[in-house]
Amino acid sequence: MRHPQGSTAPDESLVVTLRELKDRTGLSLAALAARTPYSKSAWHRYLSGGKRPPRPAVEALCRLAEADATAVLALWEAAEEPAPPEPPEERPGGRRSPRLPLWIPVSVLALFGAGAGVGVGGGLGRSPDLPPGGPKLGERARR
Q1: Tell me, what's the pLDDT at 131?
Q2: Closest Cα partner for 131 from 141, 120, 117, 121?
Q3: How many other C-beta atoms can be found within 10 angstroms of the C-beta atom of residue 81?
């Protein structure tokens, strides 16, 4: 299978060059992994453009392909790290979607959970001289 040619971005040029070097070796990903300190899945990520390879991986592939590493390392240095994920889109009016910190809902649940436990306990811990429903509105508890 031929790989895409004519890329313009430095990181795409690096990926295409690495694929060409891998093809030149005639090695499968498993064989490439056996001859280098990098796993088969790591080589897949490097050769698919999913992850930027470390410099020693590029040097190892150049050695196996019997290629001059100077040009390939120049591409490696020109290639940029993948951009970080985009921040969430803003809503119209410049407001971002509201998102509560995790501690707020946990605190609310803890408070209501504690209150529910007290209510479930019913008569436990209640003064014996209070009526079952507690003092009526306007009455004071007797002591």
Answers
A1: 62
A2: 141
A3: 8
pTM of the complete model: 0.52
Higher confidence at residue 103 or residue 36? 36
Q: How many angstroms separate the CA atoms of 45 and 55, rounded?
A: 14
* Helices 69-78 & 10-25 angle (0-180, nearest 10): 150
CA distance 90 to 37: 44
Task: Quote the CA–CA distance of 100 and 98 in Å, as a whole number.
Answer: 7
Q: Which residues contact 34 (CB under 8 A, 6 or more apart)?
A: none
Most confident region among 55-69, 90-104, 111-125 by mean pLDDT = 55-69
pLDDT at 45 over 80: yes
Three-class DSSP labels, 13-29 = HHHHHHHHHHHHHCCCH
